[in-house]
Design goal:
Elements lengths: L12 H23 L16 H34 L6 H26 L14 H24 L4
């Protein structure tokens, strides 16, 4: 069968999910950890942010977090490249939607695991302690919204 008559493969949703996970993590780390300095990876887990030693440990943990998100983006790019080389259909809607879904998945997993289960940190630790839960719940809600919007875009993308 010729190259032009071969059936197209479905869009690379898995690649988009990984790209969204990684880019969502980058946005979280850059904006919440570094620019706004609302929290660090271990700031609620007994690693102080008001001492040089504590800040060094938190900076290391933040760096490891960024390394993990960088790997997600790298793997997502490799999967996207391989899918395109194998004839995957390229739909901007499906790729953007899977990226949004991945970003939402990041917020859900990171929020549930780090904020609620492990208590490593909370979204906004600059507000009074009794308000932390509202920021954490808002973070989870943003994850649900992004995941739902991304899934809708994937479902309605051209085949």
């Amino acid at each position: 069968m010729s190259e032009t008559h071969r059936a197209r493969r479905p869009p690379p949703v898995g690649a988009g999910l990984l790209l969204g996970l990684g880019l969502g993590g980058f946005l979280d780390g850059i904006v919440l950890h570094q620019i706004l300095q609302w929290h660090h990876m271990g700031s609620s887990a007994g690693v102080p942010v008001d001492t040089v030693a504590g800040l060094q440990i938190n900076t290391l943990l933040d760096g490891l977090f960024h390394a993990a998100t960088w790997l997600m983006v790298l793997i997502g790019l490799v999967l996207l490249w391989r899918a395109v080389r194998r004839g995957a259909a390229l739909s901007s809607r499906a790729l953007f939607g899977s990226g949004l879904a991945g970003f939402g998945l990041f917020n859900l997993v990171e929020g549930l695991v780090n904020h609620h289960l492990l208590g490593l940190h909370h979204v906004n630790e600059t507000v009074p302690h009794d308000q932390w839960m509202w920021w954490d719940l808002g973070f989870l809600a943003s994850g649900v919204l992004l995941l739902a919007l991304g899934a809708l875009m994937i479902r309605t993308a051209p085949a």
